[in-house]
Backbone:
């Protein structure tokens, strides 16, 4: 609950407190689009430490609104499918498939130091849903196996991210991002209007 309150206060300050860089803001409003749609693919999934095999890489789609040159708010949705086989010292093994879905509300702070490059950083409040199923030849349910694995099936979590984007033309951007959630490293493209 405390994380939700902190995130809500952050979004309030981002969206409703006016920027004190009024000269830069007036120039920005003439040349910039407010809405953006972004699509990304995860190059390093969050579940990589569990030695998983990615069946469907982490894919994301985000709708972002940028009311000022310094701040943006976005809604991101994505998912991935990965599988892993866990081995027990007794010789038994358990093969699992994780169907992971996530939706997140994100707030970001942007830097406007260069013409075509723009670094940014922010925080996200996300809801996750995992469907983990046994895909091996085991006759037992995952709860009855020698390997005890109880996934967190759903819930809220928060994370942070840092990234940069390159704009070859004003309405198109190519971005890279490090963060926690759907993927640790994400690359993608965005279109602004």
Residues:
């Amino acid at each position: 609950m405390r994380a939700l309150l902190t995130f809500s206060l952050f979004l309030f300050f981002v969206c409703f407190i006016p920027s004190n860089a009024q000269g830069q803001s007036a120039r920005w409003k003439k040349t910039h689009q407010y809405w953006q749609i972004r699509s990304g693919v995860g190059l390093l999934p969050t579940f990589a430490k569990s030695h998983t095999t990615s069946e469907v890489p982490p894919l994301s789609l985000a709708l972002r609104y940028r009311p000022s040159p310094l701040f943006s708010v976005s809604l991101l949705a994505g998912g991935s499918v990965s599988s892993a086989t866990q081995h027990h010292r007794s010789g038994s093994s358990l093969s699992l498939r994780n169907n992971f879905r996530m939706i997140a509300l994100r707030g970001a702070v942007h830097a406007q130091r260069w013409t075509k490059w723009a670094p940014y950083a922010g925080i996200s409040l996300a809801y996750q849903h995992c469907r983990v199923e046994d895909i091996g030849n085991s006759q037992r349910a995952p709860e009855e196996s020698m390997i005890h694995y109880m996934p967190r099936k759903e819930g809220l979590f928060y994370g942070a991210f840092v990234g940069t984007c390159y704009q070859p033309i004003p309405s198109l951007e190519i971005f890279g991002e490090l963060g926690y959630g759907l993927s640790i490293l994400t690359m993608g493209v965005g279109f602004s209007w």
About this structure: The mean pLDDT is 81.
